[in-house]
Design goal:
The protein is mostly helical. It has 2 domains: 92 residues, no CATH class; 40 residues, no CATH class. Helices cover 81% and strands 0% of the residues. It is built from 7 helices and no strands. Helix 2 runs antiparallel to helix 4. It is globular, with a radius of gyration of 18 Å. 8% of the residues are buried.
Length: 142
């Protein structure tokens, strides 16, 4: 099995656990506090991972590659907004309906990738994306 596929599957399982554990842990907290706790825990974990890998010796690259840094700051802000909005939705909605809508990000990502990166997609890929969108709507709105 290709390495990208293994890590993609691990990401999907991890993302699923994030949603499930958040739903379990958000009962008596505000969505913004729950998001803050998750963010702090993630930051602490990733700092430990980066430290153990020796990544911090590459910090000067953030200055060298300013454009990359700006995009990563934007990604961080968008990630925080995504989590916050997900937590607000989970606070009041049913997990089995909220999660599929959140995963419409796949459809949006494919569309933007085609436009921004000029990536090519096969007919099977297009059909798959349409089915993801349709399946999401069927599950979430049933």
């Amino acid at each position: 099995m290709a390495q990208w596929l293994i890590f993609s599957l691990l990401a999907a399982v991890s993302a699923s656990l994030v949603t499930i554990l958040t739903k379990l842990g958000i009962n008596h907290l505000t969505p913004s506090l729950a998001t803050s706790v998750r963010a702090v825990m993630m930051a602490m974990f990733l700092v430990m991972v980066s430290a153990s890998r020796g990544d911090f010796q590459h910090l000067k690259e953030l200055v060298t590659y300013k454009r990359d840094f700006v995009f990563l700051v934007g990604a961080g802000i968008c990630g925080a907004l995504s989590w916050l909005f997900l937590n607000i939705a989970l606070k009041t909605g049913k997990t089995w309906q909220v999660a599929p809508i959140d995963k419409l990000s796949v459809v949006i990502t494919v569309a933007v990738s085609l436009l921004v990166f000029q990536e090519e997609i096969t007919l099977k890929g297009i059909i798959g994306v349409v089915l993801i969108a349709a399946g999401t709507l069927f599950v979430a709105l049933s």
